[in-house]
Amino acid sequence: MALIQETDYGTPFRIIDTTVTLEIDGRPVTVPAGTSIMRAAVGLGIQVPKLCATDSVEPFGSCRLCLVEIDGRRGTPASCTTPAEAGMKVRTSSPKLSRMRRGVMELYISDHPLDCLTCAANGNCELQDMAGVVGLREVRYGYEGANHLKSEKDQSNPYFTFDASKCIVCSRCVRACEEVQGTFALTIQGRGFASVVSAGGKNFLESECVSCGACVQACPTATLMEKSVIEKGQGEHSVITTCAYCGVGCTFKAEMQGNEVVRMLPYKDGMANHGHSCVKGRFSWGYATHPDRILKPMIRAKITDPWREVTWEEAIGHAASEFQRIQAEYGRDSIGGITSSRCTDEETYLVQKMIRAAFGNNNVDTCARVCHSPTGYGLKTTLGTSAGTQHFDSVEQADVIMVIGANPTDAHPVFASHMKRRLREGARLIVVDPRRTDLVRTPHVKADYHLPLRPGTNVAVINAMAHVVVTEGLVDEPYVKERCDMAAFDGWRKFVAEERNSPEAVEEITGVPAGDLRAAARLYATGGNAAIYYGLGVTEHSQGSTMVMGMANLAMATGNIGKLGAGISPLRGQNNVQGSCDMGSFPHEFSGYRHVSDDATRHLFEAAWQVPLQGDPGLRISNMIDAAIDGTFKGMYIQGEDIVQSDPNTKHLTKGMAAMECVVVQDLFLNETASYAHVFLPGSSFLEKDGTFINAERRIGRVRKAIPPKAGLADWEITMKLSEALGYPMPYKHPSEIMDEIARLTPTFAGVSYELLDRVGSVQWPCNEKAPLGTPVMHIGGFVRGKGRFMITEFIPTDERTTDRFPLVLTTGRILSQYNVGAQTRRTENNVWHHEDVLEIHPFDAENRGINENDLVALTSREGEITLHARISERMQPGVVYTTFHHAITGANVVTTEFSDWATGCPEYKVTAVQVRPTKKLSEWQQHYRETRRRTTQIMSETGAGD
Ligand code: SF4
Ligand code: SF4
Ligand code: SF4
Ligand code: FES
Predict the structure, then answer these.
(1) Could you read off the pLDDT of 316-331 as tens digits, one per residue?
(2) pLDDT tens digits, residue range 82-111?
(3) pLDDT of 355-382, one tens digit each?
């Protein structure tokens, strides 16, 4: 007797405790109540023919192919929409059913081109398969007069085509766009034979479509088809791996022909994405083979010299001897390095190991410094762990979702779809953001409250929410008493209850109407399971760490940590920013967030690495740059990180870079930072190596090598060679051995191995004896630190003030189609959606300055000036302007300030006082940038680099 677990798309944890037993084709089966007959049959290994049904969407019952017979019932019901009932006796095949199914197929085929042999889907087409399954041999209705055969092909989307002549109007695409993606871009227009799929009456490119590919995946025919498959044919073999873009960490099946990727298919068993994807992971992988990639190591004596291609041995030898010369001349601490959140855990672990063991200092840092370091600090201080508390699926149980300083539909799209599904089911939504993001109002989702705060006032808002909770008796007293440090709680309660923290008192500072803030706080505290999701709009502030602690206070006070549907989840940016932090990329911590001054931990690493280690924290990125300007820091190894484009105050940064004597850049492309490098080591893309990434929910997922490294070495092998040349060999034969070492030395990873990951797919740390299959939700039953610690979160306005000279506030963010500094996505077709960064400005501010749509404007701060085109938008509130930072020429960080989070030094990217005026010429910085790029291109063509 079989028992089937309900596994509808996106509801993998639905618990159904009532079961029914029925008989299908004479065999008994027990399934959860509500399961369709079709799914029940699958449990017995019986595949009922189908076309309009597919796992990823709810059944629809339109094709009539899945008919069955049920004893005692008239007619032939569709098995995909008929629920199994206790005692039912079902037949899935009979001469009558076969006849009916052939008739249905005949109708479909009569309106379908018969070009199977030349069709790109040949051999991988459900229509073709089903015609075979039902035994269709002839079509009596003739092919003339068909309704779709002459339809035009829509090729507007850069990645897939829509060939309506092949459409059987099964509606799977429409339902995928609605149910899986939540965009509602498609409809069925017309009725009966005249019905067609429509992207809102436009072509796909001009429609609301966000190119996620869910419809392409759902289509059972070649109607919606990847252009790469049409061009190259279908894959011959496949490799399961993890997306290298954002912190959602979607699993993909890379379909390959030899060493060429033909398609990236989101993997159904991927636990972060459950078979969904966004445009970047699904389609934007062309950068990996872009001609701009540098495939030969290069060196040069001065940064004004042309590059010279050399062998790996010469490049590595040169870098090592330069680092040794510098240390001999300027001292042990005169060099350092940066690990990459684009690289694998194993690779970042090796870089920090090399710096601590071979450089002999702790001068290692990572890009998390400029994004989520306050998350680590704030959550560790209050709860005891430097990471989010929940797995993504937890959102399925959330009753209230509060999104603060995050724009998931653009930056974390697959999780946004998951969240929107829960919102369509009825969860309530609070958005705290200066800008009216898509989530505030999107098809079938409307925020209950949008709190459009002034940039820089997060802490005042969270304190005011806490004020409401405390003064209106909404604290979960038993929870706090049982789990939290009561002395700290009493102090905090007194602090937030002060009148100066009330919504009314802070309204003028925050710009948020007190009534809305009060109502939102009440909803959060009393609406059931309440979950907080947040992004860089929280962390990239001078009070980033304070705000993280403020959210933890609020969640603890209302009992919203340590259970499904609640918690605090940072939506982490880069694919492996969680992993790079976990692996010990900060100057003060070994892997697993253990301080270098802790003797026991340090001795553990000294014993394992067979070398004495320093007990004092090393330099952060900003300290390294300051020291370079001061003349005491002379060499840097940068693994896959474009700090010149991504870090604040470009002028200061480039001054420091130019002052160094040996900068080694390891990357796919000659990025902006490489302009200041003396050695360039060609890196490897995620397709070219084995390893692991850790996503925003602490999930460790495998990255699997699909092709050999194009430049000959994977990143982990390059670091090994450099370390060896420095006299500290690290002889690993495979990244799995590096993970074994991480597991031996890091208690939260003690149970992790490639064998486990290959067996179960992925696990969330902590993964050890106590939790052999990982920990989806943390702090159940008690906090990791023991008692939860409430922290006083005094609001202190940033020192970056608006004045008559700089009256506007600039804040920054991301867009769906581009990624971060754009190194990857700018080298794909994604540029059709976003080919330049623009400045969003409210109509009121634009009119005051005589600015029209698309005018070139100068954006000036105390630090510098850039120029970009204006977009007039009511998404902004008056007084606030916004831009993205995906294009290097924009130089957004030329204008950002040096202010940073008090605890972690995370730059305050989200608040810069600026003025905007119309202009006719490019800024000085942009002219300089153009000239630098021109020179780089010239040098590349002279040396043949990148060919
Ligand atoms: S495009 Fe594909 S999925 Fe959509 S209705 Fe046509 S055949 Fe079905
Ligand atoms: S690609 Fe995604 S957004 Fe576009 S129509 Fe298909 S499902 Fe909808
Ligand atoms: S949501 Fe993030 S991880 Fe998933 S496919 Fe898109 S970019 Fe990749
Ligand atoms: S698969 Fe059931 S009606 Fe189409």
Answers:
(1) 999 999 999 999 999 9
(2) 999 999 999 999 999 999 999 888 888 887
(3) 999 999 999 998 777 677 889 889 999 9
Mean pLDDT over 434-438 rounds to 91
Can you give the pTM of this predicted structure?
0.92
Alpha carbons 503 and 522: distance in angstroms, whole number: 12
Q: How far is the CA of 810 from the centre of ligand 3 (A)?
A: 27
Nearest CA to ligand 3 atom 1: 414
Q: Which of 389, 446, 325 is nearest to 725 (CA)?
A: 325
CATH T-level fold of 373-570: Dimethylsulfoxide Reductase; domain 2 (3.40.228)
| pLDDT number for residue 10 | 34
Q: Does domain 19-93 have CATH number 3.10.20.740?
A: yes
> Which ligand gives the minimal distance to the CA of 224?
1
Ligand with smallest separation from the Cα of 162: 1
* Rounded distance from Cα 249 to ligand 3 centre (Å): 6
Assigned CATH topology for domain 312-371+576-689+732-745:
Rossmann fold (3.40.50)
Q: What is the mean pLDDT of residues 734-763?
A: 96
Q: For the structural domain made of 808-936, what CATH number should be given?
A: 2.40.40.20
Over residues 31-47, the mean pLDDT reads 94
The first and second tokens of residue 175, run together, are: 């339902």
Provide CATH 2.40.40.20 ranges for the chain.
808-936
- In the chain, CATH 3.30.70.20 covers 142-289
- Tell me what the pLDDT averaged over the chain comes to: 91
| Residue 243 CA to ligand 3 centre (angstroms) | 6
| pLDDT over 70 at 939, yes or no | no
Tell me the residue type at 428. Answer: R
Percent of the chain scoring above 90 in pLDDT: 73
Dump pLDDT digits (tens) for 703-735. 999 999 999 999 999 999 999 999 999 999 999
Domain with CATH 3.40.228.10 in the chain: 373-570
Ligand nearest to the CA of 166: 1
Long-range contact set of residues 19-25: C-beta below 8 Å, sequence gap at least 24: 20/84, 20/85, 20/86, 21/86, 21/87, 22/84, 22/85, 22/86, 22/87, 22/88, 22/89, 22/90, 23/88, 23/89, 23/90, 24/90, 24/92, 25/90, 25/91, 25/92, 25/93
CA of 250 to the centre of ligand 3 (A): 5
- Give start-end residues of each CATH 3.10.20.740 domain in the chain: 19-93
> Are 127 and 108 a contacting pair, CB within 8 Å?
yes
pLDDT of residue 676: 94
User: Mean per-residue pLDDT for 528-545?
Assistant: 91
Q: Is 657 in the pocket of ligand 4 (CB under 6 A)?
A: no
Pocket test for ligand 4, best of 36, 65, 134 (most atoms within 8 A of CB): 65
- Residue with CA closest to ligand 2 atom 6: 215
| 702: helix, strand or coil | strand
**CA 830 to ligand 2 centroid distance, Å:** 15
| Alpha-carbon span 426 to 410, nearest angstrom | 22
Residue of minimum CA distance from atom 8 in ligand 2: 177
CATH 3.40.50.740 domain position(s) in the chain: 312-371+576-689+732-745
CA of 60 relative to ligand 2 center, distance in Å? 18
CATH number of 142-289: 3.30.70.20
**Collapsing DSSP states into helix, strand and coil, what is residue 743?**
helix
Mean pLDDT over 524-540 rounds to: 93
Name the residue among 191, 116, 185 with its Cα closest to residue 154.
Answer: 185
CA distance 316 to 447: 54
The per-residue pLDDT for 372 is 75
Residue 677, ligand 1, Cβ within 6 A: no
Q: Which residues line ligand 3 (CB under 6 A)?
A: 243, 245-246, 248-250, 273, 277-278, 280-281, 412-414
Residue nearest to atom 3 of ligand 4 (CA): 61
